[in-house]
User: Fold these one by one.
Assistant:
Number 1:
Amino acid sequence: MSERQEKVEDIDLYIVNLDLVNLDLVNLAEGKSNATEAKPTRLTHNEAAELNPEWSTDNRHLFFQVNLGSLERKYEDPQPRLYWVDTGARDNKESDKKPVDVRPERWFASYPGEIVRYTPLPDGSVLAAGRLGTEVQFITQANPKAAIMKREGWAGAYESPSASAQASRIAFAYSSTIKPTEIYIADGASELAHARPITAFNKLFTERDLPQAEPYRWTSDDGTPVEGMLMYPPGKFEAKGLPMFVFIHGGPQDADGNHFEADWYQWDRLAATAGWLVFEPNYRGSTGYGDKFALGIVPEIVSRPGKDILTGVDALVKDGTADANRLTVGGYSYGGYMTNWLITQTNRFKAAVTGAGAVEHVANWGNDDTTFDDAYFLGGVPWETPDRYRSEAAIYQISKVRTPTHMVAGADDIRVAVAEDYLLDRALHELNVPSELLIFPGEGHSLKKNPWHGKIKVRQELKWLEKYGGTTGTP
């Protein structure tokens, strides 16, 4: 069946009240119910996709997040936000039964970064993981109009907070570039610096010589400050003249920073261990730098962030950090979009590894499961802005490509259709550019059906970088 979300305005929050007194558990187990029929009540109606709903401690307000669309105006993609809606207000109708217009209220409205995840606290306040620049730190707010408090803890990334309903204790995941992810417990938001780990799943990493990383800042072509991360090969922190792999994050609503991740999608540590200086740019469109920065890719979906990335490469070459003769590039999903675009803009990259990235936008708009954000990024549907669909598409400039390119895709991907990879593969073959296409049967966008597929993906990509990019190291 189709999993496409056709209209963002059709995605809303509802509540249903059931008469549990008359609920027959036997019938319920068989998929039937004799509960008093209850009509769902719609809580929201907007051009946004609500997600992560959770009841507040007063059992009246419902929290939810938005990362696609807007509650305040027509559809747009600012940084992810947190709201709540008063479900009890609809029960206090006047006798004439007129519908009550209950508007959601935004939490952390003055926070300049992204609200990554949240948890309600027993006292009615909220603890949230907020991304600001390359850090993800905890912040709290007593109510939507109260001051925002930054909670002091360790540098790095706090994620997935969870609060005890009966006590002040909180649990969370924490990591930094040199501290692998584990689960921690703290005796409240004010005790983060004294949190203790309760898992040791990644202890093996602590026994290895890990790559070190640091933020890197430069100025883009239009004067805008841009930031990213530099991850150095083990034992070569802040060395000069290194071969460099430009590793572009997906999303675009995401950012690289001071956190630990090591898998098929985020394999910067494997590349660094293989001898590469890994440059991870937080280009325009990334979160953690304000809504204006996040919205800066509209309607230049690849050309604007492309300039941000290339000026960062220029800066690293100019200051002697990167070897101009050993530059490579790669990314997955939106990182694949950007990789496909960048190899049409310059021949300075000796090798490219791209996954699940589009090379044009008309067919991609028609096949994507979230078509509304494609049209938003390009200023309209294909027949409204045809020139933009063409000017921002790599395929129409593909004749410039000379970079040996490795491609990866899932055969059943509905986020970025595998046809985009076939199209790129065909074009590179026609141009006699060295290329290789790796398709994983049965896989979607997230490559989660078979863990071996992710291992094979990264192994082949590292081999490609070594073959054409000029390194000799192995992870």
Note: The first helix runs from residue 25 to 29.
Number 2:
Amino acid sequence: MLLGMAWILLASVFLGTFALPAKYVKNYAWENTWGAFFFFAMLIVPVGFAALALKGLGATYAQVSGGTLLGVIALGFLWGCGFCLWGHGLARLGLSLGYALTMGTMALCGSILPFFLGQADRVATRGGLVVILGILICIAGVALNGVAGMKRERSLTSPPAAGASPAPKKNTLTGVIICVLAGLFSSGCNIAYHIGGNLGHIDRIAIDQFHNPPWLAGIAVWTLIFGGGLVSSFGFAILRLAQNRTWKNFALPGTGLNLFLTLLMALGHFACLFFYGLGGWMLGALGTSVGFAIFQSGSVLIGNALGFMTGEWKGASAESRRWLAGGLTVLIAGIVLVSVGNTLQ
């Protein structure tokens, strides 16, 4: 169990850092940066890895009902929609606030629903109540981080000088709505993993019938999720490239470095899901509820740390920093409670 927790915390580090290279991409529109990322992250990296590492991948899917396969792919499609929204939310709000709002919504939808789907009989037990309380505290901590981000935005908006016209107002509310919707749709990836693994037993088939190692078998589920996500996310990026005529940006100087940075993003993104799947497998049936709460909360901690390191909180008010400190403290308390509840289970 402790080793599973450690893998999930490592996964949260990758989740909190994989988007950082996007800050250093030059001369690209949103659809160039995130379109290249979607191509690498949803197709090249995961499908290539699965084809090389897993035995009997196609035959594994042949053993699963069509309804389960379609459900996993459809939820992956929603996840891809959420990813597109999240990319816009990060561009509007920055790493700190974007991570807090999106991951908080994901923790609410992606942790509690799988818990009730697979462990409803344990809800009234002492361990079950502690798990639910820990998840709710994690969500409260994420909400406090969101408040801190809003206060930061207000403190960084200076009044115009006398006689000067006011600066155009940044529509923070629109960014908040985008990030909340991104979290709602993105929670589909965890629900899809729960359905494909715990209910459809895709990973168990890959282990029992095709002798894949247990720590690797979860990739069979993720490959389906990536397939659904590819249709929505990469498809949307292609539409934006055609609509805005930004294909030509791929011919600008520095595109080699830009593509390398988006490949780094894809590798970090794959690593976060791989280690999350490994840790979730070690936690057993509670991996998609308990593990997911730890996964999301840890990524918010990392995202806020990166926000500080990249200057997002430079010049922010002391009040906003106190709200941030309080939110991070509550998050840590929630992670501890979730771990205790898992031990009681």
Note: Residues 145 and 250 are 36 Å apart (CA to CA).
Number 3:
Amino acid sequence: MIITDMYNPYQIQIDRLNQQLEETKAMLSDPQFKELAQNEILKLESELKVLTDAVGELSASQSNSNQPLEHTSQSKSCTLEFRGGAGGDEAKLWSDDLKRMYLRFAEQQNLKISVLDDSIIKLSGHIEVELKNQDGLVSGQTLTAYQLLKFESGVHRVQRVPTTEAQGRIHTSTATIAVLPEVPQSAINIRPDDLEWQFMRSSGAGGQSVNKTSSAVRLTHIPSQLVVTAHSERSQVQNREIALNLLRSQLWQIEEDERLAKLGDARSAIGRAQRSEKIRTYNYPQNRITDHRTKQSWHNLSVVLEGQLLPLLQDVYCALNQT
């Protein structure tokens, strides 16, 4: 069944803490361990309070989170996940460059930006575009972030001289981008028993609230073995919702791939990050971008990397949306 409001993902951890409390309290009668037990009890009670408070927050947040979208393709929001592929350290640098490019684009288009992780961003909003139909006529339209960016999923290949290359040789590296829509709860069937939750303390900047409470979330979907993490927010409830949304989107993508396979149109959105599985090549020496699906090229690479890629996205959308 679909996740319901009655499901409490914190219960297993609460039960474990209560059991540890009972075992620790039994040590109070031993003078040798009394002081140690008292300190441990304070720690366990503090963690238990965080989780019980989170249950209340969860109940309140879920009452406002069950408004399904009309259709997944109309989702205003989408997540972009960037991963380095073939090419070692240079591939990771290229992945970071791509993320910067899309962030600059989102800023220029006044999209709402949420950084969910070092490699995952969420973009929300609408974009005014000019699209050509098959007769070459141009019309103004408004597209959601997902509608315009969904064809960016795949392997992006770069040909350039890395900063670490002493002899000036051109290297080829790849990075993958996964573009997934925000999927409503009603669109994906997730059984609570198939979820394994882990709650831990976040690390890094954010102050005591982040570093001293179990706000970070690691969620495993047991049947598929998909694992997602969320630690960008200070509230465990917020990170839990982020993790669920990410998982729901990934499961939707799996179901979509299976549906396309049955229709004889199976196309992996991400592939295995190999150089041959590419949708686009960015050639620095020639200042050129080539989309291998549409056979189009643009000779303004430096400009596009600064986020001015709307013309490119419009061309790709028109070509692929009509196929």
Note: The chain has a mean pLDDT of 79.
